[in-house]
């Protein structure tokens, strides 16, 4: 995703401020959702093992401890390299999608530059498929990359797109996805529903970051919530089931409390303090149990 003006990277995750001159005050929607993340230990292990097996120097390194150690060290960072590369690709794809919307809104855009950047990385198919989807669904954008705020619960976030499709108001979140063996874009994670319902529950939207100007949120009245998987072979939009929105909202509220608890625990100070041994008693003296008088 692109970098919103009021978003900050902190030790407590991504947080948002009310203006460019104010410190971060609330967690982002994605930071709140991340409080419920499950362990990725198995995936990290698989990526490391796969990197070792595929390493071009593995054959020559067999029997050489020093070379094997170097290969293992490189492989241990395989998941980090994959994650970073995927994040960079996602940023490029999101930027292109944003520029398409800005052009349609007759606002300043960098569409040509965004497409060229994708082409430089061999990713032009993402743009091709997105353009096809945009035309097929006759997307009419209302706002792109719009930052929202909820005071009651205390969070903020940035929605990829607010648009009208087939006469319906839609809140849209893009997810860049790989393609499976059958040539289909991979499935969206259900967490996108939490992300979208949190956006729907916003109370304000940003007007001007520099001045810290906000206005009442205008798009929260029963919009259609769409997660859009953008891949190299297809774009697959999925709507959030309206019957499950309350449960996903309650889960988001619970995770917001988890974030607050973690924040409060960290802000409270050190949890463990050093303790010195008891003083050495004089020779011949006997310890007196607490609560009992000493006798001469």
From TrEMBL:
<dbReference type="InterPro" id="IPR011335">
    <property type="entry name" value="Restrct_endonuc-II-like"/>
</dbReference>
<protein>
    <submittedName>
        <fullName>PD-(D/E)XK nuclease family protein</fullName>
    </submittedName>
</protein>
């Amino acid at each position: 995703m692109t970098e919103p003006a009021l978003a900050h990277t902190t030790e407590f995750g991504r947080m948002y401020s009310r203006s460019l001159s104010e410190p971060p005050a609330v967690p982002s929607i994605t930071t709140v959702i991340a409080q419920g993340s499950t362990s990725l230990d198995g995936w990290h292990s698989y990526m490391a093992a796969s990197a070792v097996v595929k390493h071009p120097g593995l054959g020559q390194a067999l029997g050489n401890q020093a070379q094997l150690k170097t290969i293992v060290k490189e492989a241990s960072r395989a998941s980090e390299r994959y994650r970073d590369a995927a994040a960079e690709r996602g940023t490029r794809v999101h930027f292109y999608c944003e520029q398409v919307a800005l052009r349609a809104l007759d606002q300043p855009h960098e569409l040509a530059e965004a497409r060229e950047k994708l082409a430089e990385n061999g990713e032009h198919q993402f743009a091709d498929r997105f353009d096809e989807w945009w035309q097929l669904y006759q997307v009419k954008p209302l706002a792109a990359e719009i930052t929202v705020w909820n005071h009651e619960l205390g969070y903020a976030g940035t929605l990829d797109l607010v648009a009208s499709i087939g006469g319906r108001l839609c809140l849209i979140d893009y997810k860049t996805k790989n393609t499976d063996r059958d040539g289909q874009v991979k499935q969206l994670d259900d967490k996108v529903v939490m992300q979208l319902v949190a956006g729907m529950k916003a109370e304000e939207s940003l007007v001007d970051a520099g001045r810290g100007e906000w206005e009442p949120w205008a798009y929260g009245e029963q919009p259609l919530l769409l997660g859009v998987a953008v891949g190299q072979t297809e774009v697959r939009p999925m709507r959030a089931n309206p019957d499950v929105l309350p449960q996903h909202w309650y889960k988001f509220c619970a995770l917001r409390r988890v974030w607050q608890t973690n924040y409060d625990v960290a802000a409270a100070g050190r949890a463990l303090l050093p303790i010195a041994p008891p003083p050495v008693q004089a020779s011949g003296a006997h310890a007196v149990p607490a609560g009992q008088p000493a006798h001469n």
